[in-house]
Structure prediction request, 147 residues.
Amino acid sequence: MNGIKELERQLDALIGDESCSQEERTKRAVRLYYRLGKLYSICDKFVKAQECFDTARTMQREMAEIGNFREEAENFQDLGYFYRKVGDYSRALFCYRQAMELLEKNLGLHDLLTERACYLLGLTYLEDEQDGEALYYLQRPCPLTPE
Prediction:
């Protein structure tokens, strides 16, 4: 809970921060909202987590430029984790697919981050009892093993 209070304090301080541009404040706020949503998810406070994730995505869309694909992919994975925890597998799968597509497009199939996204996608399919899809993603080659 201490981490949550600290992130909320940082968000409050960011509002009146004139030391950086509005764009930079928005980017920092997006990161803070995602981190806050992740902490709320871990603490099983799903309504608060959803509010934070929604706020962050709305702010990102308003910026018109999502920015760093790694950060965006990580944010999709955090959202996927949240949806998986609350049992909303269709949304979790959507988020994990978005993360994997971003990483695969920018890093390639055999990058460790892409493989992690692939694993999370397979795990979610497994939890959703879609065994065929789960098997496909869980059996994809891992960059740490020789082909």
In short: The chain has two domains: 1-65, 69-147.
